[in-house]
Amino acid sequence: MSKNEEAVKTEKELDCGNASRGVWLVKVPKYIAKKWEKAPGDIEVGKLKIVKYPGQKSQVSLSLSEATLKIDPEQDIPKDHRFDVLAVKQQALGVFSQHVDSDRSDKIYMEGTIVEKLECRPYADQTYMTMKANSIKNASMPKRRVEQLDSVVTTFKPISDHKHNIEYEKKKKSDGKKSRTDKQAVMDMLFNAFEKHQFYNIRDLVQLTNQPISYLKEILKEICEYSVKNPHKNTWHLKPEYRHYSEDKKDKAEAKSTNNDDKMSDSDDDDF
After folding, report:
1. pTM over 0.85, yes/no
2. Pairing with 155, which of 44, 90, 165, 211 sits 20 to 30 Å away (CA)?
């Protein structure tokens, strides 16, 4: 082991030079601790009075200084307090400190052994009773409360209706005002549309025909079928008897022209 490692190991050891010194473990109320935290380091925060009687426990009292009471004048706290002294039994408690030096490693010191526990308690005077009443009142108040506004807050001013709702109502009214075109004309528009694409959803057909959706569905049920399965779910397509209607018309026209030619040829034979 090198010398540096030995030095570091020595510095990290516990210094028990003050282990025999007896110290008190004192518990103070929060309102006193808050004032002491705000107090500067060059003022007197209070006076401790210890009275010893033969064969009895020591009577310890604390009187806060005027400088401490003026730190937060909005909060009025009791000035005089007493300490309840409790003996430490079946416990080994100590106070330790650690001094940090930039040139040396941290070292732990034992400042003393706790011999007694003291709890600081206020006297039940008028100041203490008023402080507790205010504390209970503040704790019972809800964190949120309703306040009446004297003027309108434009930042959070409510509106009667939102933009998308207005647009939807306008669209709904315009759809309701659509006039019904002749049924055959609507069917022709649908046949022309299905010549371009085989499947349509109802919204596209409404836009193409500009007809009320209820009226359009009545016509679609006559000439179309509704797909409920993938890959063309929720779309309309022509029934089998209407899928090749253009070719049927063409075949009929060709058949009609053929008949006319036959009639003409028969008339020519009669002339001869």
Report:
1. no
2. 165
